[in-house]
Amino acid sequence: MPQENTNPLGLEDKLYTVEEFAFALRNKFGGDNTISDVILTEMFLAKYPMYSCKIIKSQNQSGQKSCSCC
User: Fold this and answer.
1) Which tens digits make up the pLDDT trace of 30-70?
2) What is the DSSP string of the chain?
3) Phi/psi at 55 (nearest 5 deg)?
4) What are the backbone angles phi and psi of residue 41, rounded to the nearest 5°?
5) Is 19 left (phi over 0), alpha (psi -120 to 50) or beta?
6) What is the pLDDT of residue 20?
7) 19 vs 3: CA distance, rounded Å
8) The model's pTM
9) Contact 52, 45 (CB under 8 A)
């Protein structure tokens, strides 16, 4: 029976800073450092909002919408 992979990035079950999350994205998919960690993370979360629970939210992001799993 095939298992559904709800974590295609293979991330540990922990919270990540934006910098750590961007680092994980760059390691998985490659790419250069010409785009900021914040923009890279926001672009990825726009396409895959299920990962927003993995990001530590700063205080000035408290008004941000919650993810689909919260």
Assistant:
1) 877 899 999 999 999 999 888 999 999 776 554 455 555 65
2) -PPP-S-TT---SS-B-HHHHHHHHHHHH---SSS-HHHHHHHHHHH-GGGGGGBPPPGGGTTSPP-TT-
3) -100, 130
4) -65, -45
5) alpha
6) 95
7) 30
8) 0.73
9) yes
Measured distance CA(36)–CA(25) in Å, rounded: 12
Residue type, 60: N
Q: How far apart are CA 7 and CA 10, in angstroms?
A: 5
Token pair of 56, please?
A: 């530590």
Q: Which of 50, 49, 25 is nearest to 35 (CA)?
A: 25
